[in-house]
Amino acid sequence: MDLALSSLLECAGYSSDMSNISIEREVYTRHGRIDLVINSDECIIAIENKVFHAILNDFGDYSKYINREAKGRNTVLLILGMSKVDCSKYSGFTSVTYNEYFAAIKTNIGRYITNSNNKYLILLLEFMKTIEHLIEGTTMDKELALFFKDNLQAINAFMDAYDVMRNEMRNKVSQLSQNINIDAPEGLVKQKFYREQRDLYDVLVHDITADFPIAIDCTISPEGWAITIFDRKSGNMDKLDDLLKEIEITYPLVNGRFKADVQYGFDAQIETVAETLSSLLSKIIAKVSKEQ
């Protein structure tokens, strides 16, 4: 008798003495499909697998189908799922959880391991590991929901404050854009705003079209302002490094970008940040324009 099947039947309180076993998947009944039907000379088994789906099946239809097909043999009707199910209304089905099932497999595996096919044993263990991870995730989801329930007022206040901060940062970069003073040929410089949906920062972006694409990001976050320069397309900083040295800009390379060494706090005057950014943009634009 197969380890997986005998352990499942053991959980449901049924004998595992079976011969001439055959297995069918997705067996059509009058009103639905049974996930797994196992036939033997002694009995017929129906297994309905419920990992995430709601229990909406017509179990009365399933039971009638199995009883017709049994032709005098014993019948075993099982619901296999993450959690225990009250089967009083499910036409003779018995509930078995994956935790119960896997515990039985782990208890019984010693009797099978010597003569088992290693390939199938590994597949079974990998399957068990996957389902156990799903069960852990479901438990964590319940714990997270409970945390939100217990802390809902504080969380709502935090989310309101989060939205206020995001709006304030967008206002600041909008004001900054209006204070930028540069003289550039038409089409050379493109300006836009950028932010990720969930992250707490906002960016005023300037893209300069040269023989390689130069990006200047001025980012506001709760920590303050930061100005970085980088090659948006290739990430190769050699050409950009040469260009900056030629106009006597020597910013350090931080996380793949040249980062301005000026420090402005969150509440810095917009005009002050704009003056620094405008000066940087003007120097790069003048250099690029001369070379085109």
Task: Give an overview of the whole structure.
The protein has 292 residues and is α+β, with helices and mostly antiparallel strands. It folds into 2 domains: 3-147, Trna Endonuclease, Chain: A, domain 1 (3-Layer(aba) Sandwich), CATH 3.40.1350; 162-291. Helix content is 44%, strand content 23%. It contains 7 helices and 11 strands. Strands 6-7-8-9-11-10 form a 6-stranded antiparallel beta sheet, covered by helices on one side. β3, α2 (59-70) and β4 (74-81) form a beta-alpha-beta unit. The model has no long low-confidence stretch (mean pLDDT 85).
Describe this protein with a few key phrases:
six-stranded antiparallel beta sheet, 23% strand, 11 strands, alpha+beta, 7 helices, elongated, 292 residues, 2 domains, 44% helix
Distance between the termini: 80 Å
Query: What is the CATH T-level topology of the largest domain?
Result: Trna Endonuclease, Chain: A, domain 1
Could you tell me the number of beta strands?
A: 11
Q: Rg from C-alpha positions?
A: 33 Å
Morphology: elongated
What does the largest sheet look like?
6 strands, antiparallel
- Helical proportion? 40-55%
**CATH C-level of the largest domain:** Alpha Beta
Low-confidence segments, given as residue ranges, are: none
Structural class: alpha+beta
Strand content: 15-25%
